[in-house]
Amino acid sequence: MEPLSPIALGFLGSLAAGSLTAVGAVPVLFGRIPSRATRDLLLGFAAGVMLAASFFSLIIPALDAAEGQFDNGALPAAIVCVAILLGMGAVALMNERLPHEHFKTGREGPDAASLRRVWLFIIAITIHNFPEGLAVGVGFGADGLSGGLPLAIGIGLQNAPEGLAVAVSLLGEGYSRFRAWGIAALTGLVEPVGGLIGAGIIGISQPLLPWGLAFAAGAMLYVISHEIIPETHRSGHQNRATLGLAVGLVIMLFLDVWLG
């Protein structure tokens, strides 16, 4: 049996990671909803995982790849810095241009009033989840299993509390338990799309490797700063959220060293 291609691995790995969004939302089906403090702790954990993945699984490999292409000096660092800013800018642009709605801050983007709220929520979560799938796909495209597996596991772990948060918020908006779970589960399906794109781009052109790795890192860093950390601090649980972030960061660091 032939081994799977990096593109197939990127798709399947990001699909598996995205599927854990549905797993994380399962408690709403049984009416067992953790407290807000616990949810903020878990979202802090998700932020820590993404932060560690951005640096240890994406930015450092991007620097190594750029140095392999251009030797040491200022150019590899400049490439990675520019790609990080491009990744952050791309998500910021989507956030600005696509109509969407956050559970706390309300509607954003053009023509938001003309769409049903559920679609605005789904678009917001898609903006959030796409960079995560992209990162997993780029990891597999760059270095096969050793590059993508730590990212897929880490992103999957942080998807679970995000799925729960989405489902609980939808319950608060009046959706039934099953519909809230179903919508949360569906939002994870954007990740394999990002994974396929990320792995495909890297598979087509190796010179794009440092750009792709750092771009994915920048996209995730924007989501951490703009979405996750502010959300965990809204209800006065920042100490628990910071504890969760610390635990998530060191677990992702351990996974990256152990599996990478």
UniProtKB/TrEMBL annotation:
UniProt-listed Enzyme Commission number(s): 2.7.7.7
Chief place where the protein resides: membrane
Subcellular localization: Cell membrane
Domain of life: Bacteria
GO cellular component: plasma membrane
InterPro entries associated with the record: ZIP
Name of the top EC class for this enzyme: transferase
Molecular-function GO term, any one: zinc ion transmembrane transporter activity
UniProt membrane topology term: Multi-pass membrane protein
Spans traversing the lipid bilayer: 6-30, 42-63, 75-94, 180-202, 208-229, 241-259
PANTHER family named in the record: ZINC TRANSPORTER ZIP11, ZINC/IRON TRANSPORTER
Family designation: Belongs to the ZIP transporter (TC 2.A.5) family.
Protein name, as recorded: DNA polymerase epsilon subunit 1
Organism: Profundibacterium mesophilum KAUST100406-0324
Classification lineage: Bacteria, Pseudomonadati, Pseudomonadota, Alphaproteobacteria, Rhodobacterales
